[in-house]
Amino acid sequence: MIGMYDRKDAYYRQAKKEGYRSRAAYKLTQIAAKEKAVRPGDRVIDAGAAPGGWSQVLLDMVGARGKVAAVDLLPMATLPGENFRFWQRDLTDPALPAELLEFLGGKADAVVSDAAPNTTGSSFTDQARSADLVRAVFGLARETLRDGGTFLAKIFGGAEADAVFRELKPFFTELRRLRPEATRKESFELYFLGKRFRAK
User: Fold this and answer.
1) Is the pLDDT of residue 74 over 60?
2) Neighbours of 77 (CB within 10 A)
3) Percent of the chain beyond pLDDT 70?
4) Which residues carry out catalysis?
């Protein structure tokens, strides 16, 4: 359900006008443009993909030579093209990595996630759930991301996020916190961007 605040939001209106499934599409566009996180021809996993706003942007970014594999527990309408496939599955399903790699034809160049937990109103609980979700996404990335690949995931800021940052840091040459312009001012969201993954 989209609240009145969202209806007045410029990014929400722009998403509707341009045919994107969510305003979150612009967060990825802004990060990718600045950081070159996804390139033409890349193989990408979109973890926690529903309703599909990020997958739409990713397909544009990777082009006809690239592939996008999307995963979410929630149902999601598919997107056109042979280079896109959606799995309605849990990120921690042990059978999932092999299926994703088979579709992609090799390890992913990037694993990205705009997933967020269902919020409870308790910042402590929500931060803990968000941290656990990022750990699940990274668990999938450890099985599917190529050496030197890119990791991008949303997390709710706070002490839990700092703990996850420390856990992830040894796996990347560079790990940074980002807050794209399209993030709402009152939001606690930020993104972890890991570059040059060190497969261990």
Assistant:
1) yes
2) 9
3) 83
4) 154
Torsion of the alpha carbons at 30, 31, 36 and 37, rounded to the nearest 10: -140
The SS3 call for residue 74 is: coil
Write the class of the CATH domain 4-197. alpha beta
Q: Where are the domains of the chain?
A: 4-197
DSSP 4-48: HHHHT-HHHHHHHHHT-S-TTHHHHHHHHHHH--S-TT-EEEEET
User: Are 63 and 83 contacting, i.e. CB atoms less than 8 angstroms apart?
Assistant: no
**Residue 154 backbone dihedrals phi, psi, to 5 degrees:** -80, 145
pLDDT at position 42 is 98
Q: Taking a C-beta distance cutoff of 8 angstroms, is the pair 110, 149 a contact? A: yes
**pLDDT category of residue 6 using cuts at 50, 70 and 90:** very low
Q: Which two tokens stand for residue 135?
A: 């750990």
Backbone angles phi, psi at 43, to 5 degrees: -105, 120
Question: How far from 124 is each of 128, 132, 137, 166, 192, CA to CA, in Å?
Answer: 6, 12, 20, 19, 19
Span 177-189, pLDDT tens digits: 987 665 555 567 8
Among candidate residues 100, 108, 115, the one with its CA nearest the CA of residue 44: 108
